[in-house]
Amino acid sequence: MKPLLPLISLLTLALLAPATHAADTMNEASARAAILARFDAALRGDTAALEKLLGDDLDYCNFRGECESKRQYIGEIKSGALKYKSIAHTVERVKLFADTAAVSGKVQATATRDGVHT
């Protein structure tokens, strides 16, 4: 299988849904936990978790430069058109904002898209 995302760097803005309470203030640990949960949910095909973890204004761009909305991305996973086989990732940097974090790192993933290994 070829890697789906042999990215040198991944920048995920608006990944985390906004905090709902003052006690839920974003910190580096919660940003790292959310990114781990996001990749785990994608690997398991857990679209309910992805709905909660991904910001509504997310634009997801793959290694081919093709971008899709949150709804489109989750729709591909829900329909089975996109199935992750493995996802390996590292977090290199977390930049915090009021209720959002920008996380950069590396991702190596294998998947099938419409039954074809990508």
| Residue-averaged pLDDT | 81
Low-confidence stretches: 1-23
The coarse silhouette is: globular
Say what oligomer this is: single chain
Distance between the termini: 7 Å
- Which percent range describes the beta-strand content? 35-45%
Structural class: alpha+beta
Question: What's the tally of helices?
Answer: 3
Strand segment count: 6
Question: Secondary-structure blueprint of this entry?
Answer:
Elements: E1 7-12, H1 28-44, H2 47-53, E2 59-61, E3 67-69, H3 70-79, E4 82-96, E5 101-113, E6 116-117
Antiparallel strand pairs: 1-5, 2-3, 4-5, 5-6
Helix pairs in contact: 1-2
Descriptive report:
The chain is α+β, with helices and mostly antiparallel strands and 118 residues long. Helices cover 29% and strands 36% of the residues. It has helices at 28-44, 47-53, 70-79, and strands at residues 7-12, 59-61, 67-69, 82-96, 101-113, 116-117. α1 runs antiparallel to α2 (47-53). It is globular.
